[in-house]
Amino acid sequence: MSTKMIERPAIDLDAEARRIAGAVDSIFAQLLEPPGDPRDRLFAAMRHAAIGGGKKLRPLLAVAASRLFGIDEDRAIRVGTAIEAIHVYSLIHDDLPAMDNDDLRRGKPTVHKAYDEATAILAGDCFHDLAFEILSDPVTCPEPSARAELVLELASASGLSGMGGGQMLDLAAEGETLDLAAITRLQQLKTGALIEYAVESACILARLPADSRTPYRGYARNIGLAFQIADDLIDHSGDAQTAGKKVGKDASAGKATFVSLLGEERARLQASMLVDQAIEHLASHGEEADLLRAIAHFVTERDR
Amino acid sequence: MSTKMIERPAIDLDAEARRIAGAVDSIFAQLLEPPGDPRDRLFAAMRHAAIGGGKKLRPLLAVAASRLFGIDEDRAIRVGTAIEAIHVYSLIHDDLPAMDNDDLRRGKPTVHKAYDEATAILAGDCFHDLAFEILSDPVTCPEPSARAELVLELASASGLSGMGGGQMLDLAAEGETLDLAAITRLQQLKTGALIEYAVESACILARLPADSRTPYRGYARNIGLAFQIADDLIDHSGDAQTAGKKVGKDASAGKATFVSLLGEERARLQASMLVDQAIEHLASHGEEADLLRAIAHFVTERDR
Question: Are B246 and B103 contacting, i.e. CB atoms less than 8 angstroms apart?
Fold first, then answer.
């Protein structure tokens, strides 16, 4: 046994992830209580999309990062729920026939399949509002300046200079052959920005000055990229059962991915290096960073 | 000449509306400067949808209401731009084939016609973020508590308990025959909530306590409803040239409207009474309310 092997934190990641996912589901269930009028179908579609599915990685990251600064977990879970609302909205819209045209998501029919396209568009739109409603609610955080900053940074991570812009780069890439720099940039916007925001949200709740946030941004950027490489590996070699969605899409669409550009072995090595780098950013922290460390390992191992 | 006739304020509404619409267009032009990468198509689609078209009624209302409290006009224009961003996102998504399937909007091809469906979905989504980005930006308003409240109330006016919920009521109403109470409720959510928010935003910028906002909410609720009745009258009797969109849709879809339920004459009378009531809510104000009074008259007269 090598002495250089990074010691695994003694943390039950599965149990923590289940507990936090359950807390997020409870908040969604409460916010999406059907009003008992013709909007019920929309509420049902939103519950179908958000509750009881998915890894809830972003809320988990928000909670894990909040531990670094001793932030009340309930606040971090509410912020995490807002981030998950944005993530869910993006999945619903990305799955639409005019976008990726997917029938399966999180092991269930996509919203436009289980309901209809109009309801799916609207469900995504209403998750979008719900996210900002949660963040700007004094229940989430009593300090108005933190609420306003949480909103500003989420709108930025989600919009033109973040996820939305990344989705456009992805649409524009059809039929093009992107190089490694272009793929990295695309993924940094499309999935990285929201993952980075999950970690940043804890820095905002902690009122950390901008210049003290560098290591946490570094951690988040590294695991965001590692996560995407792992996603490409699942798409390349995984099966739909494990992924909970259609796989092999990128290859059949002729899309460049980290795996098509680097090859499987180098892609795995790259992801593993990114995880090590992510963990190095946490060197100044003790066991309060163990959950973040465990998540870093998880992002590349979830396909095994 | 009747002495009871309400005196018209000596205000050039057209000139004011053009000036404010121009200011909103300038902010959009600045925020939607193409980045010079494959996202340019998305930016172009957003400029197509937002700039140089529409009455910009909601920004006009935000500015007019801000005059009651002596608020810096630049702030009200930025808040109005955020509201317009939400309005534009809702138009883009409502026009989609899965929703109302409209080809013409503001006298131009709809976004999914001029570009494509995926770009239209994404353009709507990015306007949605842009609205919250503008509101939470310290440039819009230096007080964090006002920024957070602006966001909270807009998310609420735009989401499940506002515009989004109203759109679902509208979708669910297909094939149903709604009565006057149901139509009023539907329209109050679908179009009223955002119009009310435009007026409320000035109360928020002025840090007006909630219990002092009643007359302004009354004004906004009355003109919101009058606006919708006028819209139904345009759809009933107007022509596409004037409306800048397809007309006669409701009748051909068998949808109940204020006109189908009340008849044309009573609908006109009702709208006119609502305008009078709206103006009565401003009785405690002098000429600083003249722009709001002029708008109240305008909403029922734009089809003539």
Answer: yes
**ipTM (interface pTM):** 0.94
Instruction: State the nearest Cα–Cα gap between A85 and chain B, in angstroms.
Output: 13
Query: Domain A13-301: which CATH class?
Result: mainly alpha
Q: Is the dihedral of CA A11, A14, A17, A22 positive or negative?
A: negative
Q: Using a CB-CB distance cutoff of 8 angstroms, which residues of chain B are in contact with residue A155?
A: 129-130, 132-133, 136
- Taking contacts as CB-CB distances below 8 angstroms, the residues of chain A near B39 are 160, 165, 168-169, 172
Question: Under CATH, to which class is B14-301 assigned?
Answer: mainly alpha
Write down the domain spans for chain A.
13-301
Tell me the shortest Cα–Cα distance from B121 to chain A, in angstroms: 8
Per-residue pLDDT of chain A (304 residues; tens, 9 = 90+): 444 455 666 789 999 999 999 999 999 999 999 999 999 999 999 999 999 988 899 999 999 999 999 999 999 999 999 999 999 999 999 999 999 999 999 889 999 999 999 999 999 999 999 999 999 999 999 999 999 999 999 999 999 999 999 999 999 998 888 999 999 999 999 999 999 999 999 999 999 999 999 999 999 999 999 999 999 998 888 666 666 666 667 766 778 899 999 999 999 999 999 999 999 999 999 999 999 999 999 998 874 4
Q: How far apart are CA B170 and CA B210, in angstroms?
A: 30
Of B193, B224, B201, B163, the residue nearest B78 (C-alpha): B201
